[in-house]
Amino acid sequence: MKSIKIKSLIREITGKTSTSSVRKDGYVPCVLYGGDEILHFTATEIGFKDLVYTAAAHTVVLDFGDKKKNAILQDIQFHPVSDKILHADFYELHDDKPVTMDIPVELSGSAPGVLNSGGVLSRNKRKLRVKALPGNLPDSLNVDISTLELGDKFYTSELESEDFELLHPENTVVCQVRTSRASMALPEDEEAEEGAEGTEGTEGTEGAEGAGGTEGAKDDSQDSKE
Q: In sequence order, what are the residues at sequence separation of 6 or more whose Cβ sits closer than 8 angstroms to the Cβ of residue 224?
């Protein structure tokens, strides 16, 4: 998996006052867990650009100058109005310890059920949670949809690998080809039109019979007078 380097600076002083001052200076207060000790540090907000504002998954190299730490982003908090990054938590990576991470799903190929049958491809999962050793974390999970016909589904069981474990039930649907609403509505419209025509025909027949009955009544009245 690709890594992104973030220049970092260890925080000697922590607390609300210090945290507010850090944010005013354009830095993000961060914490690194998973090592021998919890490490408090800061990083520039622009340093998160390639890590946060992308669909791709990356590990992180926290560069403290004299030492570097390999980690993954575990949690991040944003301001509800400005969307500025308020805080970030990282987890230190160790070659012999598995970690969990959300990995993006990438689709390849073209589904026959969409091209030939007018179906619609529905993506149920854009990311899947994976557990693996750091060296086995995939950049993405590839799903080949070139065999999906109308009504077919692609399950997580089809993505099983010896390198990682998917933390989802085997019957979790990743994507599927559904019948489009337009094709489902067409027969109903035709049926409605046929019903409307039949109704008009019935009403016309009843109207003719009613008119004939009235005329018959008038004729009988004239015959009785004569």
A: none
Neighbour count for residue 27 (Cβ, 10 Å): 20
The one-digit pLDDT tens for each residue of the chain (226 residues) are 899 999 999 998 788 888 888 888 889 999 999 988 999 999 999 999 999 988 889 999 999 999 999 999 999 999 999 999 999 999 999 999 999 999 999 999 999 999 999 999 999 999 999 999 999 999 999 999 999 999 999 999 999 999 999 999 999 999 999 998 766 655 555 444 444 444 444 444 344 444 444 444 444 444 444 4
CATH number of residue 7's parent domain: 2.40.240.10
3 state DSSP class of 51: helix
Q: How many domains does the chain have?
A: 2
Q: What is the reported pTM?
A: 0.73
| Angstrom distance (rounded) from CA 89 to CA 65 | 20
200 falls within a domain: no
Q: In this structure, are 17 and 85 located in the same domain?
A: yes
The helix (H) or strand (E) run that includes residue 190 is helix 181-225
189 inside domain:
no
- In this structure, how many other beta carbons lie within 10 angstroms of the beta carbon of residue 133? 15
